[in-house]
């Protein structure tokens, strides 16, 4: 942290966890880990699940600030941030605009394209106008390996990798169960990296390796077969390039406080932006704590740094 805070400086803190999104279970685990850490450090913190309580209860509880550990819709998409602003309660992380833009993979890519940042070729499938007959042309245009992603879901929910027009049609129709718009993205053959950002600084990158078809929900939260490499093995110059790219991508989406940028690297060594996360996971398998540890920041110091982002909102 740029400034050292005492536990009493934060007042009474509510850790928002759970919620009603498809990522509820992960949020509960993230929130519980963070809450335990804050309480261990002497901070007056309570758990608050907006799926079970009205937000106005935050005022009744005399809450001074909120640490948001809600993943996905309702917590990471700007709606919670706007509600807290109306209640005049400071909160952690990105504001309304940054949260909304990062949550929407399509708008993220459009903004990155507009400022010249590298991202894979893509198309958009809209539920109201989707035609199954277009799948063959889409596959050909995007290189015959395509990632299908609901525009506004996280934790790889509803995602699929496809290699045929028939698979593409099935995957799109499945993704429509999660969102009315679906991102169809050229698959980048190569390693996946993630860069955590904390109070304006990029933490060491992490390289993920999984026997799964891609880094899906099971690889992230359920299996022990996923390997994480931090340091990631990049040359010093490449590490600096990736850190700069992640910082630029986060800033372009109006991200602030803390977050994470996911990136692929192709066989030619070029980085391509995938997505931004404004409330990354904080479970025992999560990536931000792994990167922070390599940077010399233990879990308690990390949670305190995240909480401190509420002091400058």
Automatic annotation (TrEMBL):
<feature type="binding site">
    <location>
        <position position="262"/>
    </location>
    <ligand>
        <name>Mg(2+) 1</name>
    </ligand>
</feature>
<keyword id="KW-0133">Cell shape</keyword>
<comment type="pathway">
    <text>Cell wall biogenesis; peptidoglycan biosynthesis.</text>
</comment>
<dbReference type="GO" id="GO:0005524">
    <property type="term" value="F:ATP binding"/>
</dbReference>
<dbReference type="InterPro" id="IPR000291">
    <property type="entry name" value="D-Ala_lig_Van_CS"/>
</dbReference>
<feature type="active site">
    <location>
        <position position="23"/>
    </location>
</feature>
<feature type="binding site">
    <location>
        <position position="275"/>
    </location>
    <ligand>
        <name>Mg(2+) 1</name>
    </ligand>
</feature>
<protein>
    <recommendedName>
        <fullName>D-alanine--D-alanine ligase</fullName>
        <ecNumber>6.3.2.4</ecNumber>
    </recommendedName>
</protein>
<keyword id="KW-0067">ATP-binding</keyword>
<keyword id="KW-0436">Ligase</keyword>
<dbReference type="InterPro" id="IPR011095">
    <property type="entry name" value="Dala_Dala_lig_C"/>
</dbReference>
<dbReference type="GO" id="GO:0008360">
    <property type="term" value="P:regulation of cell shape"/>
</dbReference>
<dbReference type="InterPro" id="IPR005905">
    <property type="entry name" value="D_ala_D_ala"/>
</dbReference>
<dbReference type="GO" id="GO:0008716">
    <property type="term" value="F:D-alanine-D-alanine ligase activity"/>
</dbReference>
<keyword id="KW-0464">Manganese</keyword>
<keyword id="KW-0573">Peptidoglycan synthesis</keyword>
<dbReference type="InterPro" id="IPR013815">
    <property type="entry name" value="ATP_grasp_subdomain_1"/>
</dbReference>
<keyword id="KW-0963">Cytoplasm</keyword>
<feature type="binding site">
    <location>
        <position position="275"/>
    </location>
    <ligand>
        <name>Mg(2+) 2</name>
    </ligand>
</feature>
<feature type="binding site">
    <location>
        <position position="277"/>
    </location>
    <ligand>
        <name>Mg(2+) 2</name>
    </ligand>
</feature>
<dbReference type="GO" id="GO:0005829">
    <property type="term" value="C:cytosol"/>
</dbReference>
<keyword id="KW-0547">Nucleotide-binding</keyword>
<dbReference type="Pfam" id="PF01820">
    <property type="entry name" value="Dala_Dala_lig_N"/>
</dbReference>
<comment type="function">
    <text>Cell wall formation.</text>
</comment>
<dbReference type="GO" id="GO:0071555">
    <property type="term" value="P:cell wall organization"/>
</dbReference>
<dbReference type="Pfam" id="PF07478">
    <property type="entry name" value="Dala_Dala_lig_C"/>
</dbReference>
<feature type="active site">
    <location>
        <position position="286"/>
    </location>
</feature>
<dbReference type="InterPro" id="IPR016185">
    <property type="entry name" value="PreATP-grasp_dom_sf"/>
</dbReference>
<dbReference type="GO" id="GO:0046872">
    <property type="term" value="F:metal ion binding"/>
</dbReference>
<keyword id="KW-0961">Cell wall biogenesis/degradation</keyword>
<keyword id="KW-0479">Metal-binding</keyword>
<keyword id="KW-0460">Magnesium</keyword>
<feature type="active site">
    <location>
        <position position="155"/>
    </location>
</feature>
<dbReference type="InterPro" id="IPR011761">
    <property type="entry name" value="ATP-grasp"/>
</dbReference>
<comment type="similarity">
    <text>Belongs to the D-alanine--D-alanine ligase family.</text>
</comment>
<feature type="domain" description="ATP-grasp">
    <location>
        <begin position="109"/>
        <end position="308"/>
    </location>
</feature>
<dbReference type="InterPro" id="IPR011127">
    <property type="entry name" value="Dala_Dala_lig_N"/>
</dbReference>
<dbReference type="GO" id="GO:0009252">
    <property type="term" value="P:peptidoglycan biosynthetic process"/>
</dbReference>
